Amino acid sequence: MELPLTVTNICIGEIARYNPNSMAVFQKYGIDFYCKGKQLLGEACAACGCSESDVLSDLENISSNLDPNQNFNDWSIDALIEYIIANHHQYVNKTVPEIVVLFKAVLADSSIKSADLIRVSEIFRLLGNDMKQHMQKEELALFPAMKKLESINQNEPTVRSVSIQTLIPVVEMEHDTSGIMLTQISGLFERIINADCISNDLTLLAAKMKEFESDLIMHIHVENNVLHKKAIELEQALMN
């Protein structure tokens, strides 16, 4: 999608949804397009203290050529769910225990004395636990409801006891909590890696945490800005 002249009146999550090339611009300026995608561009720029005109200029210059592997808005709800589980949920389940082990190794290093490191390890432990429960909730309740929604023939009456639109806000509140913890971890880690004592384990941990951050940002974006929006739109269409 080419960004229209009225881009300032479109939520940033919608901009990212229809042109994923815009995500690089948002990340450049520190704009949270994944958890706070309902913000308008001006609101988002004010929140992070960046120039709206600079961001708008960069957005107007992005390519409208989209990588089909990243253009998630063209995917079906079924395909999106399978992608999220296979790429993001499995990544979290595999990577959280690995990072926990790295934290233990770094904390055991007597040459590194850092209250920040102890704090960030605790926040990450809470994040990992929260995400495990959150992903189970999605896989057992929300995702099956969405798949059922997509399988319904539009000519049939739609009778469901629970609306998708009552489930999604709960999930997105949990995403907000994960986003807050991610921001806290990122800020603490920035201070930690600027310290004098940097071990090999700490360098590896920092790289692993950066990878985890990037994955979680994309994970939340695909759910909040694409999957949830498509499911809501479909449910509304079926009810009309």
Mean pLDDT: 88
Helix content estimate: over 70%
Radius of gyration (CA) equals 20 Å
Order of helices and strands: HHHHHHHH
Features:
240 residues, mainly alpha, 2 domains, 8 helices
Give structural notes:
The chain has 240 residues and is mainly α. It folds into two domains: 7-60, no CATH class; 75-239, no CATH class. Helices cover 70% and strands 0% of the residues. It has eight helices and no strands. The chain has helices at residues 12-18, 22-28, 41-48, 52-60, 77-107, 115-151, 164-193, 200-239. Helix 5 packs antiparallel against helix 6. The chain is globular, with a radius of gyration of 20 Å.
How do the helices and strands line up, and which of them pair or pack?
Elements (H helix, E strand, L loop, with lengths): L11 H7 L3 H7 L12 H8 L3 H9 L16 H31 L7 H37 L12 H30 L6 H40 L1
Helix pairs in contact: 1-8, 5-6, 5-8, 6-7, 7-8
Compact description:
The chain is built from eight helices and no strands.
